[in-house]
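Sample intake sheet
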Amino acid sequence: MNWIELKEAGQLEIIKAESHQQPVLIFKHSTRCSISRAVLDRLERNWHIDLATIKPYFLDLLTYRSISNQIAADFAIEHESPQAILIYQNKPLYAQSHFGIDLAEINRAANKTVVS
């Protein structure tokens, strides 16, 4: 899995624009949290080729907490950690935290964006 590191607030505008073309996943990770590490490992271990249509961004929220706060404000989603947010057409389709983060659910939400 090839994460795109989210390090600058300006990248949020890029994510919003990209979300009009394909689903975008933001994973907010705490480097000090064992639950966050376990969820991240599970995501990376189970990421499949059929999820290639989702563009994945990774946010180290301890280093870039202001960006995490901006995500919460921009998408009207309360900040949690770890947290996965799937965005399409500038709207959150999926937002879960902790062990509620489910790759199958992320995939189902992303598949709803595909026009048959």
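Comment: Residues 34-46 form the longest helix (13 residues). Helices lie at 11-18, 34-46, 65-75, 103-111.
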